[in-house]
Amino acid sequence: MTLQLLQEITAFIWAEGDMLDHGEYDAWQALWAEKGIYIIPIDPSENDFENTLNYAYDNAHMRQLRVQRLIGGESISTSPQPRTIRTISRFRVLSNDGEFVTVRCAQNLREFRKDVLKHYSADVIYELQRSGDSFQIQRKLIRLINSDDTLAGIGYIL
Fold it and tell me: I want to staple 55 with a disulfide (CB 3.0 to 4.6 A). Which of 10, 40, 70, 150 is the partner?
């Protein structure tokens, strides 16, 4: 791993988090590969996401529906829209073959909605593919540290 690669990955993932915190969903959608998958498993040790229950297992169509539900104001879990701030840190490149990079990082997300502040912590694994001088997200796996506990509605995008 080179410092330049780590800087490129960090800048990309920080930009993604900033887009989500500021509701820039079109720009966020453009970060994804056509067949990219967004996963939030319930079982923290699960690896067979296709055959188990997840909070999210979204392809491009489901991500678009999630965004529409979030901004549409018709879902009780997203009305009023939550305000979020995420801090992303502890980046570690797990693999890199020049075209595909797998990186793990920590995310702490604060959500404020209906006068209540909530906190979610997660290990996040990104599978990224080189795309010009940037990346596209092939897979984003969010392992909430309390995923098997009772969660009070996570209607926004982690």
Answer: 40
| CA separation for the pair 76, 113 (Å, rounded) | 12
DSSP the chain: --HHHHHHHHHHHHHHHHHHHTT-HHHHHHTEEEEEEEEEESSTT---GGGS-EEEEE-HHHHHHHHHHHHHS--GGGSSPPEEEEEEEEEEEEEE-SSEEEEEEEEEEEEEETTEEEEEEEEEEEEEEEETTEEEEEEEEEEETTTTS------S--
Distance CA 88, CA 41 (A): 19
**pLDDT confidence band for 87 (50 / 70 / 90):** very high
- The pLDDT value recorded for residue 7 is 95
